[in-house]
Automatic annotation (TrEMBL):
It comes from the Bacteria. The keyword Membrane applies. Keywords: Membrane, Transmembrane, Transmembrane helix. It is found in: Membrane. The chain crosses the membrane at residues 44-76, 88-106. The keyword Glycoprotein does not apply. Pfam families: DoxX_2. It is a multi-pass membrane protein. It comes from Actinoplanes sichuanensis. This is DoxX family protein. The lineage of its organism: Bacteria, Bacillati, Actinomycetota, Actinomycetes, Micromonosporales.
Length: 107
């Protein structure tokens, strides 16, 4: 159940970010202080992480590796949001997602 939520969350987020209008992607990349290419790569990593967690349902080691990568990614996102002074809620959301993703490793 938790793995399913994590798979859907990261898959949908990654796809939404990659298919967003180019001006929206540029605005988000600018907000975080990264290049458009880096923003798109991170979006792709979200999709790959989602696929890795899904594959982990068959090969547990792969799922654990993917979940660790996604947890690290979310901690970095929280740090970027903190640096951008986005406010407590926007910093807390990726941290909560990181904790839920970590939960897939212990299940």
């Amino acid at each position: 159940m938790l793995a399913g939520i994590v798979i859907i969350f990261f898959g949908v987020q990654g796809i939404a970010r990659l298919t967003a209008a180019p001006e929206d992607q540029r605005a988000a990349a600018y907000h975080f202080g990264v290049s458009l290419s880096e923003y798109r790569k991170v979006s792709g990593l979200m999709i790959l992480g989602s696929a890795g967690v899904a594959a982990g349902l068959v090969v547990p080691a792969l799922g654990i590796a993917a979940a660790v990568g996604l947890v690290v990614l979310m901690v970095l996102v929280a740090g970027l949001r903190l640096l951008c002074q986005d406010g407590a809620l926007r910093v807390a959301v990726p941290l909560v997602v990181a904790v839920l993703t970590a939960g897939t490793m212990v299940w």
